[in-house]
Each structure stands twice: as structure tokens, then as C-alpha cells.
């Protein structure tokens, strides 16, 4: 503390003193201006704490609250004594406030002690203010009750401030931050120190129950696992619930989850859950989607060619299903229908159906259709363009695939080995090339597990021209050949009818001539020898015509 007085001329000495509360002085330091020596009075509170400089500035170490006094600087000359006081104020910053005796939890609609805000070692005394989420908590009767206590340490003179807060929380106080702030005064003015914020666990009763279906999928199908989860909006949340299952009159007591595995379609219905006291309830509807497919017949089916086979694919589902057929890995445009089975109808059929709205719901059944048939043979022949050989083809149908053998009766050279075409839809052909030196007979033998079929064909010598039968071209060509055969038969039958009519007419003519009585015996005798010659000529012509017709029939048959 600098001495507020100017050092006068003729100064003898200077002194410092302080005033007691009753006004009496207590001298604490003396300095002579001539001898330059310093003396400190025997005052226990200031022992070893004082220092007086040459310009009469007084320093006090280790300031205490008790140092807050009125100090006076005295300068003495022979003629005068001058005095000037200095008032000392002492400040002590309080410690950071702490919230002690915190409540373990807070319950709504109940006034509870939240905690105590304590700030120690303050001078002068400070003030405590409570905050929630940064806003000042003002006292409200029955809701916010604040009680502030200030205690002073008699030894140090420092103050300890304790502020208790009673509070009635609401649901909105979940995660609210409570803090307290100490306001105190220092040499530079008013200052504040804030405590660490505290969040309390606020308990409140359940007001609503909610049921959920896990996993949260838009669709559920047969075979899925379902978890029902029931929750209440209270804190702490309820730990037990009653689950009501369709068809069950009593609730099933369980934790907050109820698991159903491998659900079936009969699990469709309304599900409910409630608190154990049945005070609150929520419900949800579950639809278990299903898809059934019945293929008739199914598996491996063996039928004979030409038989009928009714096939049905029946669908039963919770929604409209899409049905399609696949044959040998190729999607079909229409459903299969077999009124007369053919070899090309054989194969692996799949009836498949899906529910497009339900992921993973797909069903399929298979039908392996086997079409069997006894071997059927048709033989054709043709003279090759070089006129040196003939090709004989044996057209074979049947399943299982027949084995083909050839036999030759007669003299002829087989120019190459037997060749077979690819077996497709129960059909194939075997070909042999021969150069017959004379008329020969070729026999085609086809045999499978069902039957052995033998067909023979006469083949003329290579030097004899003959009718070459066309290969089986099927369809229109067969009809064309049949029409030609009908035409030939019609011509032959017509010629026979013409010959018959001519014979009848001639017989009538002869009879009429014999019955004529009015002619003379001479005329009869003269004319009679001519009649046998006419008859002989007529019957000769008729015989020739019949032979020609018979020859045509034989050639056509071959």
C-alpha cells in the first residue's frame, strides 16, 4: 500500500497503523528518515508478513480476510503530523460449485430433492442460482423450491454457500441438463462460476402400449419366423406383457417379445398385447401368405402313343398367383394338353407358380412324360442318279429307340454300310445302298422292348427299270400319293364295267336273233356258221382286256 502522502522536508520518521473496530489505533511499522532503520511492532497477526520500503510503501504478505481494515500512513516532522488512510478490501474466488446428494431418479408428479449445490471458500459471500437447459429456475410453490444457506468459517472467515433444490419433474425433463451457478464479486466486479451439468433419470408411468411385428416386412409367408414386440412408453418401460393369440381366450404372459416359428396360414388374424393389469392394449393384424400347387399327374408317367393324358395344375393361394409351364428348360406359351400323345410330347414338364408381391414364395412340381410305342416301319426305294445302285430307306418310329437290322435275300453288292439319321421325336431312318445283280428281297427289322417288327421289300435287278417310291415326306405328299392310287383303281374298275356291259349287250343280241321264227331255214342254215366266229372274236377281245387289267393291278401292287 503506497503512502498517500508526499514526503515533506524535515521528515523525522513515518509510521503505519490500522484502526480497530472501536476506533483505537494499532501501530504495526516504524521507519526513521535519519537512521534508515525499520521497526515492526509486535502484532501477532502481522508477524513476518510486513515490509516497509524507503518511500514508506507498506507490503503485506499472505493476505487474509482479517486484513480487510482501515490502514493509516503517518509522516512526522518537528512541526506537524500528517495522516492519510487507505481502506483495504479482500476478495476470495469461491471453488467451482458441485451438485451433491443427487437424487438417484426423479418421478413425475412428485416433489423431490434433486440435489444440493455447494460452493466453498468465498469472500465475500456469493449467490447461487439453479438452471435447467440454460434457463433460470424460478421458485414455484409446490414445483420448484430453492433454499440457500451461507456458512462462514470462523478460522478463515470464508463463506460456504449451499443451495438445495426440490423439484417436481415432468416427462419433458427426460435428458434435461440441470446446473447451478455461483455469482461472486472480485476486484474487477461481478463474476460467475458454473457447475458441471447433471442429467437425471426421470421415471414416468406408461400411457400407451404399442405392438410391432418383427422383422418389419410388408409380407409374411408360411415358414417364416415372427416376433411380436410389445412396448410401453413409460420409463422404465414395462418388462412383462400379456399377448393374445387368435383362437386363445387367455393372454400369454411373456417378456416384451413373443416368438412364433414356422408359421402356417392358420396364424392369420388379430394379435393383441396389454400390460399385465390389462389396463392398456394395442393390436395388429397379421396375414400369413400361402401358395399351394397340385400337379396331376406328377413324377414319372409312361403312356403309349396315341393315348390321351389329361394334365391339371391346381393353384390355391392367399393372393392371385402367376402360373407358367416349362418344358425342357423352355417356357411354354400355353398349358399342355394331350388328346393323342405323340413322341414329340415326351419331355420334362414343370408347372411353376409365384406370388409376385411376396418375396420368396414360389412353388413348382414336375412331370416327366415318357411316350412309348411299338416299332412302325415304312420302306422306300429309289434308283440313284448314276443308275448303278439303288438306295433303300427304312423309316422307323418307336420308343424306346428300336434297334434296326437289315437282311438281303438274293444276289447283290452292298456298296456301303448302314447309315442312320438322328433320333428325333421317336423317329429316325436307316439307309442302305445296294447294286442288285438280280431281283432281291431286303428285310428291315426294328425291335425295342415292346415288340419286334419286320417289313420286306422286293428290289429288281439294276438292269430292270422299276417304279421308284418317294421318301416319306409326310403330310401333303402322302395325301398326293393316296389320290394317285385312288385314280388308278378307279380307271381299272371303269374298264371292267365297260367290258361287262359290252358282253351283256352282245348276249341280248344273239338271243334276239335265235328267237326270229319268220325266217327261212335256209337263211338260218346259211347264217348259222357265221355266228360262232363272231362269238370267238368277241370273247378273244374280252380276254385280252381282262389280261391287261390284271397286269396293271399286279404292277400297281408291286
UniProtKB/TrEMBL annotation:
GO terms for cellular component: axon; dendrite; external side of plasma membrane; immunological synapse; neuronal cell body; T cell receptor complex. One of its GO terms (molecular function) is identical protein binding. GO terms for biological process: adaptive immune response; heterophilic cell-cell adhesion via plasma membrane cell adhesion molecules; motor neuron axon guidance. It is a single-pass type I membrane protein. CDD domains: Ig, IgC1. Residues 85-194, 205-287, 306-368, 375-455 form the Ig-like domain. It is found in: Cell membrane; Cell projection, Axon; Cell projection, Dendrite. Pfam families: C2-set_2 (PF08205), Ig_2 (PF13895), Ig_3 (PF13927). The chain crosses the membrane at residues 487-509, 537-557. Keywords: Adaptive immunity, Cell adhesion, Cell membrane, Cell projection, Disulfide bond, Glycoprotein, Immunity, Immunoglobulin domain, Membrane, Repeat, Transmembrane, Transmembrane helix. This is CD166 antigen isoform X1.
Amino acid at each position: 500500500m503506497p503512502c498517500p502522502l508526499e514526503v515533506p522536508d524535515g521528515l523525522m520518521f513515518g509510521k503505519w497503523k490500522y484502526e480497530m473496530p472501536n476506533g483505537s489505533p494499532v501501530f504495526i511499522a516504524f521507519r526513521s528518515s535519519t537512521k534508515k532503520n525499520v521497526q515492526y511492532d509486535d502484532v501477532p497477526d502481522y508477524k513476518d508478513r510486513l515490509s516497509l520500503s524507503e518511500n514508506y510503501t507498506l507490503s503485506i504478505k499472505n493476505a487474509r480476510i482479517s486484513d480487510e481494515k482501515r490502514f493509516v500512513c503517518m509522516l512526522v516532522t518537528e512541526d506537524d503530523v500528517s495522516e492519510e488512510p487507505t481502506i483495504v478490501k479482500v476478495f476470495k474466488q469461491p471453488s467451482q460449485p458441485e451438485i451433491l446428494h443427487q437424487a438417484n431418479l426423479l418421478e413425475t408428479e412428485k416433489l423431490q430433492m434433486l440435489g444440493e449445490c455447494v460452493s466453498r471458500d468465498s469472500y465475500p459471500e456469493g449467490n447461487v442460482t439453479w438452471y435447467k437447459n440454460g434457463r433460470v429456475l424460478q421458485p414455484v410453490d409446490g414445483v420448484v423450491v430453492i433454499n440457500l444457506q451461507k456458512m462462514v468459517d470462523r478460522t478463515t472467515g470464508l463463506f460456504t454457500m449451499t443451495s438445495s433444490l426440490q423439484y417436481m419433474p415432468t416427462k419433458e425433463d427426460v435428458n434435461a441438463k440441470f446446473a447451478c451457478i455461483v455469482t461472486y464479486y472480485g476486484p474487477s466486479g461481478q463474476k460467475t462460476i458454473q457447475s458441471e451439468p447433471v442429467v437425471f433419470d426421470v421415471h414416468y408411468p406408461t400411457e400407451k402400449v404399442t405392438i410391432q411385428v418383427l422383422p418389419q416386412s410388408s409380407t409374411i409367408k408360411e415358414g417364416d419366423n415372427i416376433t411380436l414386440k410389445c412396448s410401453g412408453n413409460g420409463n422404465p418401460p414395462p418388462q412383462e406383457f400379456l399377448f393374445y393369440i387368435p383362437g386363445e381366450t387367455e393372454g400369454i404372459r411373456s417378456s416384451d417379445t413373443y416368438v412364433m416359428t414356422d408359421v402356417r396360414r392358420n396364424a392369420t388374424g388379430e394379435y393383441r398385447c396389454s400390460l399385465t393389469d390389462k389396463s392398456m392394449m394395442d393390436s395388429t393384424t397379421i396375414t400369413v401368405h400361402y401358395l399351394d400347387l397340385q400337379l396331376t399327374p406328377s413324377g414319372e408317367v409312361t403312356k403309349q402313343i396315341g393315348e390321351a393324358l389329361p394334365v391339371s395344375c391346381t393353384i390355391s393361394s392367399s393372393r392371385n398367383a402367376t402360373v407358367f409351364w416349362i418344358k425342357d428348360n423352355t417356357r411354354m406359351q400355353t398349358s399342355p394338353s394331350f388328346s393323342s400323345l405323340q413322341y414329340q410330347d415326351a419331355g420334362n414338364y414343370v408347372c411353376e407358380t409365384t406370388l409376385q408381391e411376396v418375396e420368396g414364395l414360389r412353388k413348382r412340381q414336375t412331370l416327366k412324360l415318357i411316350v412309348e410305342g411299338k416299332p412302325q416301319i415304312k420302306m422306300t426305294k429309289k434308283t440313284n442318279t448314276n443308275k448303278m445302285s439303288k438306295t433303300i430307306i427304312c423309316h422307323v418310329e418307336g420308343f424306346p429307340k428300336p434297334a434296326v437290322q437289315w437282311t438281303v435275300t438274293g444276289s447283290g453288292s452292298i456298296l456301303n454300310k448302314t447309315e442312320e439319321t438322328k433320333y428325333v421325336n421317336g423317329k429316325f431312318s436307316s439307309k442302305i445302298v445296294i447294286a442288285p445283280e438280280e431281283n432281291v428281297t431286303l428285310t428291315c427289322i426294328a425291335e425295342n422292348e415292346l415288340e419286334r417288327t419286320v417289313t420286306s421289300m422286293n428290289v429288281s435287278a439294276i438292269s430292270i427299270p422299276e417304279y421308284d417310291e418317294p421318301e416319306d415326306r409326310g403330310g401333303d405328299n402322302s395325301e398326293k400319293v393316296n389320290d394317285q392310287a385312288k385314280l388308278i383303281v378307279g380307271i381299272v374298275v371303269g374298264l371292267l364295267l365297260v367290258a361287262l356291259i359290252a358282253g351283256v349287250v352282245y348276249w341280248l343280241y344273239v338271243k334276239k336273233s335265235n328267237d326270229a321264227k319268220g325266217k327261212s331255214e335256209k337263211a338260218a342254215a346259211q347264217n348259222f356258221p357265221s355266228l360262232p366266229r363272231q362269238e370267238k372274236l368277241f370273247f378273244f377281245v374280252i380276254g385280252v382286256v381282262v389280261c391287261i387289267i390284271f397286269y396293271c393291278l399286279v404292277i400297281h401292287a408291286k
